[in-house]
Each structure stands twice: as C-alpha cells, then as structure tokens.
From TrEMBL:
Pfam families: NAD_binding_8
Organism: Microlunatus elymi
GO cellular component: cytosol
Domain of life: Bacteria
Classification via SUPFAM superfamilies: FAD/NAD(P)-binding domain (SSF51905)
Stated name of the protein: NAD(P)/FAD-dependent oxidoreductase
Entry-linked Gene3D superfamilies: FAD/NAD(P)-binding domain
Signal sequence, renumbered to the chain: none
Length: 508
C-alpha cells in the first residue's frame, strides 16, 4: 500500500513544476517541503517590518523558463523586458547597453573604448551567441540531445569556441577593452567560483546557461516579483490536485521491495513507487546515508528598499543606470584579481557586484503609498565570496564594509543615505552570505545551482536507455529521479528540472 504515485522531496519551483505536470496527467502526487513556504529560491517576501514591498528575496530575474512550461501549466505570469541591458560605470563615465541596442549604445562604446571596432566585435559576438542559443534553447524541453547533433547545427568553430576552451580565452581574443571583456564575462561567474581561464570549463557551462534562455539569452523581470512565479506554480499544482505539504523535512529515504519510504522529522512517513528529489543531489545522498563532497556557493545577496535612487558620479539618470544590470568592479582584470583573493582566503577588494532595481520595470511589488513616495527596491549580487570565507550564518560586517567600499566610487552620494527605514527604525538592508542561503533554503554550501552546472546535452557515446537517462534526471536507483537544480539541465529559475523529471515519469 502506498500513499501516492509520486512523492516529491522539496517544494521549490522545480518540485512544483513536476507536481503540476504529473497531477495533470492523473497521477497522485505529494510534495513534502521543509520550509513554511513553497517555491524555494523562487520567493516573494515582505522582508522589512511595516514596509509594503514584496521583494524577490533570493532569485530575481528569469531567462530560462520556457514559454512551453508557462502555457502547459496555465501559469498566470508576465515576464517584462527591461529597457536597459546593462550599465558599467567607468571613472566619471560609463558603458551603457540599451535594450534594444541603439545609437546611445554605439556612442557609449565609442566613448569608453575610443574606437568603433569594439562595438562591432560586441555585435558579432552577440550574433554568434544568439545563433548558438537558437539551436540549444528548443532542445531544453526535449530529451537530452547528443552533443554531436548540437555541434553539427552550431558548427565546429563556434562550438569549440564556447565549449572546448576557456571562455576567458574566447573573450580576450574577441575584445580588447578591459571593461567590455568583464561585462561579457560576469555571466560565466554567477554562482560559479572559477577563473575565467580555468581549464575545467566550469565557467563555460555557467556562461552557456546565462546566454541561451528563450533563444536570446534575455533576462526578464517577473511582474509581481519572484513571488508571482511561486504563486502561479502553487496555484497550478494545487488546481491539478497535487497535495502540497509544508513544514515537513524529509530526514531519511529508503527502498522497500518495490517502493520508496520517505521519513520526515516529525516521525511520519510517506511511501511511493516513484520519488523525485527537488532537494540538492548532496542532500539526497545524505538522506540515503551516503557522504559526498559538499558544494560551495560563492555569492552574497543584498536586498534593500530605498527612499530614492542615489545619484551617479557620471551624471547618468539613475532611472537608466539602475534599470538594467549595473556592473560594479567587474572588469576582466578585477574579476581575475577577485578570484585570486577569494582563493587565498580573503574577501575581494574591490568587491565585484551587480546592482539592479526591480521597481523601475515593475512597481507592482510596492504598495501604492510607497510608489507615490518614489521609493524603490534595490538588489545587489556580489561575486567571488565563497562559502569558506564565512564562519557562521548571520550579519557579516566585513562584507558590508567591502560592499560599501566597492560601490561608493561610482555614486555621487552615499547609498546608505538613500536607504529607507522599517517600522522599527532599522535600515531596509538585508545581506545574505552563502551560509545564510544554506540556512534559509537548505541549498548545500549556499550553492545557487545546488552544485556545478553540466552541459545541456549528453555525450554521443553516453547511454540513455531509460527515460530518466534520456531526460537527464537519473540516479543509480530505480524509481528515484532528480527533479531540481542538480539534474542535468536544472540550474536557475527554469522549471527544467521539474519538467524533465515529470516527462521521464510519464514516458516510463
Ligand atoms: C540569492 C540567489 C539569487 C539567484 N538569482 C537567480 C536569478 O536571478 N535567476 C535565476 O534564474 N536563478 C537565480 N538563482 C538560482 C535559482 O534560484 C535556483 O537555481 C533555483 O530556484 C533552484 O530551484 P529548485 O526548485 O531546483 O530548488 P530550490 O529552490 O533550492 O528548492 C528546493 C526545495 O527543497 C526543499 N528541501 C530541501 N531539502 C529538503 C528536505 N530534506 N525535505 C523537504 N524539503 C527539502 C527546500 O526547502 C526548497 O524549498 C538564484 C539563487 C539564489 C540563492
């Protein structure tokens, strides 16, 4: 006697995607979520007491979530384009990339680099990336393609450039300017601690996922914040009949003849022939009693609410500068130096980070009073801050100082003068290190992808006999499938881990 056709460990967004697909197909599904809230890193929260701002507390932008999943699951979701791609302060000037790119972008490249060539190189590079993305993106909702097929369609030259040698080599070949190189290379380092020239190519894999979403690599703003994505998925899964149970941490998983038994911290247990692990692979191993190497995250995240946007030394309107991704100390040389410092056990100085204002594109996350007062949200994501630099979860004064020092150079006034205060008179400022992320979400080591990313395809000689192998969600155990960021194509806010796991179950 079992309790459900499928038990899902974890109610992150991938777990919810799987639950919704399977329940719609008539399977009985139980989702067991450790936290009091569903969605995992896809979450919207009123973080600061008395401040009516629903922040995307963890993840904040969406690129990899395919339209197919949105329409299959009837998700009531709007993803809005930003009007600015990025802005990178350079001395008293800055490199502006509009969306779509126009005359101001061309002029900005010419001003910063002193020539027309670099923008031409930028356009050619992005045309290449779009060609690559247009081949790979449609395969993401299909069984894993073989690498040979991708290579045949992309062409040897581009395939080798992106997947056979370090991305740092390609970018330094294509671009001459330190800032332009860095602006491109940050996509290789978000959630991945590596040098851009690392021979392991772990940074290339990270880069690939950052540029293939929807065949364009565009990162869009979820209207209503990430909480709206979680709400849409919870609504879809519940409407389909999935049972979503919160505050139940699975502590043990064992195989019993023809089914799995998941035991929870409160002593209850659930049995099912199929179990999907939305938790990290490392967590799953622990539930099975197996010790494996723990992943380590490398980022800090800061959530803020501001009474006004700070002015910039460059004089650019902050409504333009903060509307896209504002790169701070992310030039090629600075990124390399920051990695070296992190490897020697020190916080980067200056701290490479990127800053972005959600409420400029979508003010619906703020209550009407705050909109009227001109308040804004601000997100800061800092790189090269590996988990081993921190002793324990909790406020890290050293990081706070490092970030302050890093951002003050491009602002015409202290950011801290712009930060709003909450009902207790405390600044609306929340800083999370990888250890805080682990404590909040159970992501091992605070690794935002549950571990290093894999290529979104399989080798030509890699066997794929079972549906789980074909969809990249197999474990070595029958009836136990990966269903989250640890699955082959699962990293980031994509729903792909959940989609692949559900398809593998339905194909069996
Ligand atoms: C700070 C931060 C910023 C990010 N920014 C972006 C971004 O802007 N865009 C983007 O695409 N990606 C971003 N990411 C990455 C992205 O959010 C994650 O890769 C993705 O959301 C993971 O989804 P998931 O469903 O696979 O896992 P998770 O979101 O980790 O959900 C797993 C769930 O399983 C639960 N769980 C774990 N163990 C157990 C257990 N034993 N029993 C029961 N439940 C358990 C957890 O509580 C959690 O709810 C960011 C991540 C972080 C942390």
């Amino acid at each position: 006697m079992t309790d459900a056709d499928v038990v899902i460990i974890g109610g992150g967004h991938n777990g919810l995607v799987a639950a919704s697909y399977l329940a719609r197909a008539g399977r009985s599904v139980v989702v067991l979520e450790a936290r009091g809230q569903l969605g995992g890193a896809v979450a919207g929260e009123r973080t600061f007491p008395g401040v009516d701002a629903r922040l995307s507390r963890f993840s904040y932008l969406v690129s990899l979530l395919p339209d197919k999943i949105i329409s299959d699951l009837d998700l009531d979701l709007e993803l809005r384009s930003r009007t600015v791609g990025s802005y990178t302060p350079v001395g008293d000037h800055g490199l502006l990339v509009e969306r779509p790119e126009g005359d101001a972008t061309r002029a900005s490249f010419a001003e910063i680099t002193g020539n027309e060539r670099e923008y031409g190189a930028w356009q050619r590079f992005h045309a290449d990336l779009e060609r690559f993305a247009s081949v790979v993106a449609p395969t993401l909702t299909e069984p894993l393609p073989q690498v040979g097929e991708i290579r045949r369609r992309v062409g040897d030259e581009l395939m080798d450039a992106l997947t056979a040698r370090p991305i740092g080599d390609l970018v330094t070949d294509r671009f001459a300017h330190d800032v332009v190189r860095g602006t491109v290379l940050t996509d290789a380092l978000i959630g991945t601690e590596a040098d851009v020239h690392d021979q392991s190519l772990v940074q290339n894999r990270c880069f690939v996922y950052h540029v293939i979403g929807r065949g364009t690599g565009e990162w869009r703003v979820p209207v209503g914040g990430m909480g709206a994505v979680a709400d849409a998925l919870v609504g879809s899964a519940s409407a389909a009949g999935a049972e979503l149970i919160t505050e139940v941490a699975v502590t043990e998983l064992s195989r019993e003849v023809d089914h799995w038994r998941a035991v929870t911290a409160d002593g209850r247990s659930w049995q099912a022939p199929v179990v999907l692990a939305n938790c990290a692979r490392w967590t799953l191993d622990r539930l099975l009693g197996k010790a494996t190497a723990k992943p380590a995250g490398n980022q800090i995240k800061i959530n803020m609410v501001l009474q006004r946007l700070p002015t910039l030394r460059s004089g650019l309107d902050p409504k333009i500068a903060f509307a896209g991704t504002l790169h701070v100390h992310q030039s090629y040389r600075e990124l390399r130096a920051a990695h070296q410092r992190a490897m020697s056990g020190q916080l980067p100085a200056p701290f490479p980070c990127e800053v972005y204002c959600h409420s400029l594109t979508d003010s619906s996350i703020l209550g009407p009073e705050l909109v009227k007062k001109g308040w804004h949200t601000l997100t800061l994501f800092g790189l090269h801050a590996p988990a081993n630099l921190f002793d324990e979860p909790g406020r890290s004064i050293a990081v706070e100082w490092a970030v302050k020092a890093s951002i003050k150079g491009f602002l015409a006034e202290p950011l801290y003068d712009c930060i709003a205060t909450d009902a207790n008179g405390d600044p609306c400022f929340e800083l999370m290190t990888p250890l805080d992320i682990e404590a909040e979400l159970g992501m091992p080591g605070g690794h935002i992808f549950h571990g290093d990313l894999s290529w979104p395809w399989r080798d030509d000689d890699q066997e794929a006999e079972t549906p789980a192998e074909r969809w990249g969600v197999a474990t070595e155990h029958p009836g136990l499938l990966l269903c989250g960021s640890s699955s082959r194509r699962g990293g980031a806010v994509s729903g792909l881990g959940g989609h692949s796991a559900a398809m593998a179950v339905l194909d069996s």
